[in-house]
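Q&A log
Question type: sequence-to-structure
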Amino acid sequence: MVSDISNPSLYIVFAIFFIAIVFRYFLVAGIFYGYFFVLNSGKFSTRRLSRRKLRRGQLKKEILWSVKSSVIFALAGSLTYWLWENGYTAIYLDPSRYGLWYLPVSLLLALLLHETYYYWVHRWMHQPGIFRKVHKVHHDSLSPTPWTAFSFHPWESVIEALILPLILLILPMNIYVLGFYLLLMTFSSVINHLNVEIFPEALRNSWAGKQLINATHHHHHHEEFSTNYGLYFTFWDRWMNTESRNFRKRFEKIKVQQKESEAIKSIFHRNSEDPEAQVLGIVIPYHRLLQPRTCQDPVDDKKRNE
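Response status: OK
Response body:
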């Protein structure tokens, strides 16, 4: 028997989803913002990917838009719950139903489907007429922060929310894998908007690391607007020739920057008998670190806001 979609219990389900989504957003974004922008602001100030200052009231606007997005995400979650309750989804409870080997496979398949959907929808949202009405709110954060993760116009939130229920209609997924997937989406979005590269050099240079979107990769999307449309993986950008040409160059700058930072630390902790040489050793690296680093932006701010 199909349950009535107007059943009052669905309002309780919606409230639970909304509270869980907002809590997850504030928890994950808050941890990353607190560590990289508050507790260790000075330490990471020279490693900011964007040199732009935050716009006036940017954080407040990002949080407000994110809460609005959470309402829409909660509605999508409630709809998915109703579909599951009435047997329309492929969600299952017993982890051994399809074999334990299928658990990571189902996660990977969901990520690939989501990636494909997002890449092409994302490119569509950058069409001039669509961009102004749907995607501009997100790109108002020219210098992204962890709070940018859910900062979408309601129309974009709807577009973002549609894909998961559609995937769950056709792809068998265990409830625990689904929970991990939702958490992974939040961490991925926050890290990609962190404005600080946290992937270690060994991972960035590895084959696996080159398949993954990171803060540097997504930074160039906010910087250039016409490159790096991916969500989790880089393969669509590479195949469609939309990956930024400045992306790999930025990695080299990060590598040099991190080495200079390590050199400064070693100088401070070195016991030198020559104070003059020690002072010179400190001043020179600091001078290099404080030199402004900019990335040429092919689209001016006025054109972006059209």
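Response note: The CA atoms of residues 170 and 225 lie 33 Å apart.
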